[in-house]
């Protein structure tokens, strides 16, 4: 009886091992999760996204652009220009221009890069619309600039004068471009025309978006699945990529 019992026990153990092996094989055969690959893999040099002519028009007295700090220039970059045209006793014309670029990789957990970029794009527009101290805020869609774009314009009154602020937020594939442009007449000089500033900002935003596309060239491959999680730039997206009307007079 003891021998029979022992044989029965061994037989049951073998069955358990076989079932465990089958389960393990089934798990290893399961397909890995996939996500649509991000179209753009890099960003252009931020201080080179605008032509010399455009910089002369928007910030005529600016010297070289100042590139912002970034722990990964392939996902986050920005450049700014300050211009002060001193007209002596007649006052001065001030301009500040900033271009911020933020790229999102696809992530098997969080989703495709273009959808993550869309979320950040919407946030950037909302942030511009709710800028502290803004007066007369207006929002307008902008066509021909990436996949989608909006212009938010408003006035900011400061001790130096009235600043006319334009923020253009554009998304092209998995990259969000935020362009801030403001101007003011200081020390008695006249306030710049807001419509002229908006036109200049729109032109510059189109150039910046085109630079993103050109930097990636034929390497952009939208729609290809990705099976490995990537570190997304959205981990730091809560910190706004731009600081509109920061009072850099």
UniProtKB/TrEMBL annotation:
Compositionally biased tracts (Polar residues): 71-87
Annotated segments matching region Disordered: 1-38, 55-87, 212-249
Alphabetical list of Pfam families matching this protein: DUF3558 (PF12079)
Biased composition (Low complexity): 1-11, 22-33
Basic and acidic residues biased stretches: 55-69
InterPro entries per the UniProt record, alphabetical: DUF3558
Signal sequence residues: none
Name of this chain's protein: DUF3558 domain-containing protein
Native species: Streptomyces griseoloalbus
């Amino acid at each position: 009886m003891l021998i029979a019992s022992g044989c029965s026990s061994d037989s049951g153990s073998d069955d358990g091992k076989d079932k465990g092996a089958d389960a393990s094989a089934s798990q290893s055969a399961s397909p890995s999760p996939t996500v649509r690959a991000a179209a753009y893999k890099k960003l252009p040099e931020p201080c080179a996204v605008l032509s010399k002519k455009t910089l002369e028009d928007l910030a005529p007295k600016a010297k070289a652009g100042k590139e912002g700090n970034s722990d990964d220039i392939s996902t986050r970059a920005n450049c700014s220009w300050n211009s002060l045209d001193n007209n002596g006793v007649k006052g001065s014309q001030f301009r500040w221009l900033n271009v911020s670029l933020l790229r999102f990789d696809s992530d098997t957990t969080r989703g495709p890069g273009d959808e993550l970029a869309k979320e950040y794009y919407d946030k950037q527009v909302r942030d511009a619309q709710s800028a502290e101290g803004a007066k007369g805020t207006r929002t307008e869609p902008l066509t021909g600039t990436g996949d989608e774009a909006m212009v938010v314009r408003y006035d900011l009154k400061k001790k130096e004068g009235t600043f006319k602020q334009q923020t253009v937020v554009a998304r092209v594939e998995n990259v969000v471009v935020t362009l801030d442009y403001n101007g003011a007449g200081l020390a008695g000089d006249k306030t710049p025309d807001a419509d002229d500033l908006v036109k200049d900002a729109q032109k510059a935003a189109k150039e910046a978006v085109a630079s993103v596309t050109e930097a990636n060239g034929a390497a952009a491959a939208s729609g290809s699945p990705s099976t490995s999680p990537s570190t997304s730039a959205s981990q730091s997206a809560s910190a706004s990529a731009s600081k509109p009307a920061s009072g850099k007079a």
